[in-house]
Design a protein that fits this description.
alpha+beta
């Protein structure tokens, strides 16, 4: 269940909904094989349910896997990560065609799809497991990340400066199967409607020219 440390009333609503419809398949998902010409990018931007869905809607993205990165515990479970003691952040790994969408454009989607200026917090989700973080694989990616941070700060889109952590990629652990494609499988779940959906809509608006499908998403009143 998502940790909702603020707003007790909202916590009860979201946690009650989160327990409904979840699969009992706690087996870690399998990482897809990288296809010829593909690249992979790894981002942490709060709850992976929203970030996975947002990235998945971009042209050129073949698959997005939710998981954990940035910590010290091998093969962590969701319950372990939620204790905020493993060092991991909820993370997504994006498999994409750089001839269709560039790494720089993925960075734009990442900064649009969450608030990169709140330290160890995304909305009601609080803890280092919800921190904003980018894992680079090459010096070129690191330079593009730094340029994107500078671009985001200079845009004044957010009132506060970006606090996104930037680290070299080491290892990514896929999350349990029941977390994969969670947004699409549970569209009516209260947490998805109230917390995840606004983030996905924000990313879609910022990346309107790069979407696979322009059909608007729907929020339940």
């Amino acid at each position: 269940m998502k940790k909702l440390s603020l707003y007790v009333v909202l916590s009860l609503l979201f946690l009650a909904g989160c327990a409904q419809g979840q699969s009992k398949d706690y087996t870690p998902a399998k990482l897809p094989a990288l296809k010829p010409g593909e690249a992979v990018a790894t981002f942490a931007g709060g709850c992976f349910w929203a970030m996975e869905e947002g990235m998945n809607q971009l042209k050129g993205v073949r698959e997005v896997i939710s998981g954990y990165a940035g910590g010290t515990v091998k093969n962590p479970t969701y319950e372990q990560v939620c204790t905020d003691q493993t060092g991991h952040a909820e993370t997504v790994q994006v498999y994409y065609d750089p001839k269709v969408i560039s790494y720089s454009q993925l960075l734009d989607a990442f900064f649009a799809g969450h608030d990169p200026t709140t330290l160890n917090r995304q909305g009601p989700d609080v803890g280092r497991d919800y921190r904003s973080m980018i894992f680079y694989r090459t010096p070129e990616e690191k330079a593009q990340i730094q340029a994107a941070i500078k671009r985001t700060n200079e845009s004044k889109h957010y009132p506060n400066p970006v606090v996104t952590e930037v680290e070299p990629f080491k290892v990514f652990y896929p999350a349990e199967n029941y977390h994969q494609n969670y947004f699409a499988l549970h569209p009516d779940q209260p947490y998805i409607q109230r917390v995840s959906l606004p983030k996905v809509e924000k990313l879609r608006k910022a990346m309107a020219g790069h979407l696979k499908n322009n059909t608007a998403l729907t929020m339940i009143d």
